[in-house]
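Why do we bother with holo predictions? Because pocket geometry can differ from the apo form. Keep that in mind while you read this record for adenosine monophosphate.
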Amino acid sequence: MYKAPRGTVDILPTTSSKWQSLEQLIRTVCSYYNVQEIRTPIFEHTELFCRAVGDTTDVVSKEMYTFQDKKGRSITLRPEGTAGVARSYVENKLYSNPETLQKLYYMGPMFRYERPQNGRQRQFHQFGVEMIGLESPYVDVECMTLAITLVEALGIQNVKLHINSLGDDASRELHRNALMKHFEPCIDELCHDCKTRYQKNPMRILDCKVDKNHPLMDSAPKMRDYLSKEAKEHFSTVCSLLDDLEIDYVIDDNLVRGLDYYCHTVFEIISDDPRLGTGSTVGGGGRYNGLVEEVGGPYAPGVGFAFGMERLLIAMDASIEEESGLDVYLMPLGKEAKDLAVQIITMLRANGYSADMDYQDRSMKAMFKSVDRNKAHFAMILGQEEVENEVVNIKCTVSKHQSVVKLEDILSYIEDHESGEEHE
Ligand code: AMP
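The structure, written out:
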């Protein structure tokens, strides 16, 4: 017996329609914001993620699915979407597009070698948006409003936008030095990873899951005290735009985000929706002005976010799922009827109706069960008598009305009655 690998799940037909509704809603919201889809490969050169995401992050140092291909190249299944989008932006010279601001979204599987637990998988899905080409705080806010609009459209409850500023290079340098000074006396008390972080990127210590209760965490120097004049201005514009739009937010000094490429605005959307559990992060993102240069492109500042789609699905309103049923289910009785049913079903499908039929010569009762299971609008019964008279018996499952319809009139009958209104 084969089993799906640990941390992966099958999306079965019973839930795939919920996925499709979510995907459809995402596409609709993105179209309102003029954000277009980009599809990048599922695997990339390992070096891209080390470069873009940063090798001091947990994602890169511990969680990547990395392997050598047959030519000995190091390949990694993407653990996140931004690095691939930045690579594609550079490789395809999207920066030379007359529209300076490229607004892109992606949806698809991501892979992280994590301990599977509730809401955490090794193959999971993210929807993300990247807006690349402008430094403007207005774009940060456009990204955040898109994220909020989506969450609201999905009916996810008790959501709060948490924001922080990580400043620019100058601010980060000052903050870095202050952090090193702060943690120096207790470096031996911190975990093994934090010792490496102390050398490479001390801000990562603030994100440590092991040392999060260490007394020096709370008293650590706050980024907001080290922001340069420009960084302060950027952040205060973001805050006042959010105020103008009456979007509720909290400034959260400890929000540093798990990936290395962020600067200026970072944000997370946190929900207390009971279906997710208190304080669950549904998604987050931030600004990454240096990332495109880091992967070999020109200076092209960007901002983006990613949502975990599994979490969106858990918390989204059940009513969003579209009721999708078949238009017609055909119920032939006997060989001749079956052959005629094949003709009819082909004609129906060619005319844009969804239709299915019984191939097993089952009883009427069993076939009517299939009508129910498939939520078919019309049940079409074809017995020997109908075949001889060149008619079908159509039962509308909405109005419960039953009619005998000539073969050549099937299409017009269905067209006239598909709205489910009362029969005259
Ligand atoms: P990140 O790229 O780490 O900022 O993650 C963005 C979002 O993706 C998170 O808030 C989660 O909703 C989701 N996510 C990250 N890792 C996983 C995982 N292993 N399984 C399921 N969802 C995840």
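The longest helix spans residues 13-32.
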